[in-house]
C-alpha cells in the first residue's frame, strides 16, 4: 500500500521502496521527507528522476514499485540522485520463480454496481451496438455504406441502441486457409459478433475470400443476434456480395436486415448489475516520463478495485512488459499460468528474430533523460497498470477472456492492435493512459483516456477523460486511482467518453495477424 | 498474334499452340475447326478445358499462350481432352535463360491521346484529388473528419476537383524505426503525396509515432502541393494532433488548409496529352476458370497497346506469377532486369519459409475442375494480362515507376495490397479482371473492372465496367482487348468507373509492410 504522508515534492510508489520520484525538479539542499524521516537533497534531481530515501550499500538492491529495478553500483545516501551512474541491472537473467509471490486476494468489494445491458450468457454490455462486420477488406465499403444509412438522427427512435457500426479491416484474404492468421481473424470476428457490447450483428463478405464465412460460422459456432432477448430464431445472418449481385444490392439487403434487427436490439434496457461484470482492458500509448509515476500506478489502483469487485482486468502489450515478466510469473496463481506467459515471451523472441531483430525494451535516450535507468524499471512502469493482485490466466491474442481477476493477453504494444485484441476478447471498458496525448477511441468499447500530466490534459481537454497529472501536484496515487475507478463505473453506465463524443472508433479496429500476406 | 478464323467452339490463345480451350462443353464427335484444319472431338470436353488441335507425341511439349505448359505423358490426337491424365510438368526446374527471348518492340502508336491533368514533372493525372494523408492509424479518424467536411455538394464550385480524400491505414507505429516496414511506408506516403492524380495534399499525424513526419519529409523530400500550378511557396504541409491540441483543433486546422488549397487544385484543367502518359496497373482478383481464357489475355492486348503508345503497364502479384517467372526473365531487356526478378522470387521463398510455409501456386482442386492442369499454365493465365512485350524493369513494392514499357512490381497477390503498391508507384489507371465478381475500387486511381464471363457481368452490372465474357461467345481476344484499351482512354479522360460511381475506394488503401508489429 502506498504511503500518503510523504513529502509533496516526492512520489513514493511503494512503502517498501528505497527510492522516490521527484515530482518537480529539486535543488541541492532542499528539505525532503519520507516515511523514514526527514533529510536533505544532496544532488540536483530533475523532475521524474529518482532520489534515494534510505542508505543503499554498493551491491544492494534498489526498490521501486516495491520491486527490484537493479543494484547499486556505489554506496548511495538519502537525498542522492539515483540513475545510471550508481544503478545498474547486474544480473539481467530473470528468475521466473513461478508462483513464489502470489498475493493474498484483495478484500472483496460487494456493493459496487453499474447500469449495464444484460445478455443471455452472464455477459453484460456497457454499450448496445448493432455491428455490421466485414469479414474481408473486399466488403469493407459495403459494411460502411450499410452503417452510414443509420446515423444518430435515424436512430432517435431507438434510444437503447448506441449506434450501427461497421467493423472493417484490411485483411481476410491473401492468407493461408486454416493458417494462424486465418484462425486468429476468425476468433476476432467471433469476438466482435459475441461481444457483450454488441446487441445484434450482420456479417458481410465478398464470397470468394480465403476467410470464408461458412468456415467462420462453423468453426466459431456463431448464431444470429446472440444475446438479443426475444429474437425469433437464427434467421439470415450473412450477406455475400457475389450472391446478392454486387455492391448496391448487398447494401440494400443489409439495410433491410439491420432495420429488422433494430427494434429487437432496442428492446434491451440498462439494469443495475454487479461491477463483477466489468472487463477492463489496460493500455498505454504515447507514454512519457510520467506514465510510470502517475497514470499507470493510479490505473493499477483501479485495476485492484475491479478485481476486488470480482471483475476482470486485462494487461497486454507483451513487447512492453518484456523485462518485467518474471514479476508476473511470481504472481501467477499456478505453474501452468506462469508457463503460458513464458511461452509467449519465447514466442516473441522467435517472432522478432525471424525478421533479424530482437526484443529491445531498454530505456531509450529519451527515457533515460526522463529518469528511467533500467529495463526492469521501464517495464514495471508499464506493468503498474495491472495493480498488485495475482495473475490468474494468460490468453492468446483475441481469445475470449473467461477468468475473473487479473489476466494477461498476448498483444503487440501498438495501441490499435493491442486494444483490438482485448476488445475481441470481451473487454467492455478500455482504460488508456497517455503522456504525449493519444486521441484513441474504439468501437464497440468505450475508451477512457487518462492523462499522465496536467499540461497535456489541459491542452487536449476535449480528448482526455481523467487527469492523473494531479499526482505530480500532490494528489496521492490512491486518490487518483479511486477517481479512475469511479469514472469506469460511470462510463460503464452510459456516460460518453471524450472519444465517443468526438465520433472516434471506426478506423481503429486493427487485427494483429501473424503470417505471410500472399 | 491470335488467329481469328478458328471455330466458334474453341478459343485458341496463340497460333503456335497445340491445344485450344473449349468455350462451352463439347460432346464427343462434335465438329471442330482450327488453323490446321477440321477434326472431330474425341472426348467429352468440359467448358474451359483443353482439347488437342494437333498430334502431340508422348514426351512432346504442350503449348498454350504460345508457351510450354508441360509435356504429354501419352500420345495425344486432335480432338482429345488434354488434362492431368495425359499432361504433366516433367521438368519443373525453371531455366531462367535471361534475355533469350526479347520480343521486338511493338509498332509504335502515335495518335492516341486522352484528356489529363498535366503536373509540373512530366507526370499526367487522370483524376485531380486533394488528399489528406494520415501517416499513422492514430490520425486516421482526424484525416477522415477533415475529408468528410468536403462532400460533393461542397465541391460543386470546384469542377476540376474530383474530391477530397482521406488516405488512412492501420500502420505507422509499433514498428522498428528505420526498418523495412518504416521505409516502405514512407515510400508509400510519398507515392500518394506525389501521385499524378493528387493535385494537393496535407499530411496529418499524431506526433509521437515511429513513422515521424519530420523523417518522412526529409527522407522523401516532400514539398507542398507538388504539381499544383500557381502555388505560392511550400507553406504549411503537416498537422500534428499533439501540436494542434487534439482532435477538434486539428480537424479545424485541416479544414482551413484544405479550403485554402482547393482553388489552387481547381485551377488545373484537363488538356489533350499523349497516351504515353498512361501508367496502367494490372490486377486480377476473384479469378475463375475463364480468367486465363478471356479477360486476362484480352487485357494483355490492351497492355501491348499501352506499351506501343509509349506508356507503362505494371504487372505485379509475385505469388501468382510464381511458376511462370522464367518466361518473364527470358523477355527481360537486360540480365540486370532478369536478376532483379529472380532476386524477388528468392526473397518470397524465404519470406514464406519464415512462417513454415512455401510458395504454392499449384492448381487447386477447383482450378483443376475448371481445366487448369499445371502450375505453368495457371501462372501463364495470370501473366497473360501483361501481353507480349519485353520486360523493361522490376520494382520493389511501392517504388516510383519511372520506366516506359512493361514493368514488374513485387507485390502480394492480395488485391488491395497489390493495387496499393502499384498506385503508390504512380499507376494512374488500374485494370482489374475478375471472374467471381470483385467490387474493388481504390483512390486516387480509377479501377476498371473487367468481367471474365457474361453471367457474372450481367448479375453484377452495377460493379463491372467491361465484359470480356464475350470471348466465350465468339468475340476474338483482340477485339475484346481493343474495347478495354478504348475504355482505358475514356476513363483516363474522366469517364467515371463503376466503383467511382458507387463511392468505393476509401477503405481499400492497404499498405503491405513486412516486419514485426511491436
Ligand atoms: Ca481498420
Ligand atoms: Ca452479442
Ligand atoms: Ca500501447
Ligand atoms: Ca486502409
Ligand atoms: Ca490479386
UniProtKB/TrEMBL annotation, chains A, B:
Its EC number is 4.2.1.42. Residues 17-88 form the SAF domain. Keywords: Lyase. Belongs to the UxaA family. GO terms for molecular function: galactarate dehydratase activity. GO terms for biological process: D-galacturonate catabolic process. SMART domains: SAF. It comes from Bremerella alba. This is Galactarate dehydratase (L-threo-forming). The keyword Lyase applies. Pfam families: GD_AH_C (PF20629), GD_AH_second (PF04295), SAF (PF08666). InterPro entries: GD_AH_C, GD_AH_second, SAF, SAF_UxaA/GarD, UxaA_altronate/galactarate_dh.
Amino acid at each position: 500500500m502506498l504511503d500518503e504522508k510523504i513529502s509533496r515534492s516526492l512520489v513514493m510508489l511503494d512503502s517498501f521502496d528505497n527510492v522516490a520520484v521527484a515530482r518537480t525538479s529539486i535543488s541541492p539542499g532542499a528539505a525532503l521527507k519520507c516515511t523514514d524521516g526527514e533529510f536533505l537533497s544532496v544532488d540536483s534531481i530533475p523532475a521524474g528522476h529518482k532520489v534515494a530515501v534510505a542508505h543503499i550499500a554498493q551491491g544492494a538492491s534498489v526498490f521501486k514499485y516495491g520491486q527490484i529495478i537493479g543494484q547499486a553500483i556505489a554506496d548511495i545516501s538519502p537525498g542522492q540522485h539515483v540513475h545510471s551512474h550508481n544503478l545498474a541491472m547486474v544480473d539481467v537473467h530473470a528468475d521466473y520463480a513461478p508462483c513464489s509471490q502470489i498475493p493474498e486476494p484483495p478484500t472483496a468489494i460487494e456493493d459496487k454496481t453499474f447500469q449495464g445491458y444484460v445478455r443471455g450468457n452472464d455477459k453484460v454490455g456497457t454499450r448496445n451496438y448493432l455491428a455490421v462486420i466485414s469479414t474481408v477488406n473486399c466488403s469493407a465499403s459495403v459494411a460502411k455504406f450499410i452503417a452510414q444509412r443509420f446515423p444518430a438522427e435515424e436512430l432517435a427512435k431507438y434510444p437503447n441502441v448506441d449506434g450501427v457500426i461497421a467493423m472493417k479491416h484490411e485483411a481476410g484474404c491473401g492468407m493461408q486457409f486454416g493458417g494462424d492468421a486465418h484462425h486468429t481473424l476468425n476468433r476476432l470476428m467471433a469476438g466482435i459478433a459475441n461481444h457483450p457490447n454488441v446487441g445484434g450483428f450482420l456479417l458481410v463478405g465478398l464470397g470468394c475470400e480465403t476467410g470464408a464465412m461458412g468456415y467462420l460460422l462453423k468453426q466459431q459456432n456463431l448464431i444470429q443476434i446472440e444475446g438479443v432477448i426475444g429474437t425469433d430464431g437464427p434467421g439470415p445472418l450473412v450477406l455475400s456480395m457475389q450472391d446478392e449481385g454486387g455492391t448496391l444490392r448487398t447494401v440494400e439487403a443489409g439495410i433491410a436486415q439491420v432495420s429488422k434487427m433494430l427494434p429487437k436490439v432496442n428492446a434491451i434496457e440498462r439494469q443495475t448489475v454487479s461491477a463483477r461484470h466489468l472487463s477492463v482492458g489496460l493500455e498505454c500509448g504515447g507514454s512519457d516520463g510520467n506514465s510510470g509515476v502517475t497514470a499507470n500506478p493510479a490505473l493499477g489502483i483501479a485495476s485492484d478495485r475491479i478485481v476486488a469487485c470480482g471483475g476482470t482486468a486485462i494487461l497486454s502489450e507483451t513487447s512492453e512488459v518484456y523485462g518485467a515478466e518474471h514479476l508476473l510469473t511470481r504472481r501467477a496463481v499456478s505453474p501452468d499460468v506462469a508457463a503460458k506467459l513464458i511461452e509467449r515471451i519465447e514466442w516473441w523472441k522467435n517472432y522478432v528474430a525471424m525478421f533479424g531483430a530482437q526484443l529491445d525494451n531498454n530505456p531509450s535516450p529519451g527515457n533515460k533523460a526522463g529518469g528511467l535507468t533500467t529495463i526492469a524499471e521501464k517495464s514495471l512502469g508499464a506493468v503498474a497498470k495491472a495493480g498488485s493482485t495475482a495473475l490468474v490466466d494468460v490468453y492468446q491474442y483475441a481469445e475470449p477472456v473467461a477468468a475473473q481477476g487479473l489476466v494477461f493477453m498476448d498483444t503487440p504494444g501498438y495501441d490499435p492492435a493491442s486494444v483490438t485484441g482485448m476488445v475481441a476478447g470481451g473487454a467492455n471498458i478500455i482504460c488508456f493512459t497517455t503522456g504525449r496525448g493519444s486521441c484513441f477511441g474504439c468501437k464497440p468499447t468505450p475508451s477512457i483516456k487518462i492523462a499522465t500530466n496536467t499540461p497535456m490534459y489541459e491542452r487536449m481537454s476535449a480528448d482526455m477523460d481523467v487527469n492523473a497529472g494531479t499526482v505530480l501536484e500532490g494528489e496521492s496515487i490512491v486518490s487518483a486511482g479511486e477517481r479512475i475507478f469511479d469514472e469506469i463505473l460511470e462510463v460503464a453506465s452510459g456516460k460518453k467518453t471524450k472519444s465517443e463524443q468526438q465520433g472516434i472508433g471506426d478506423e481503429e479496429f486493427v487485427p494483429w495477424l501473424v503470417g505471410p500476406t500472399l
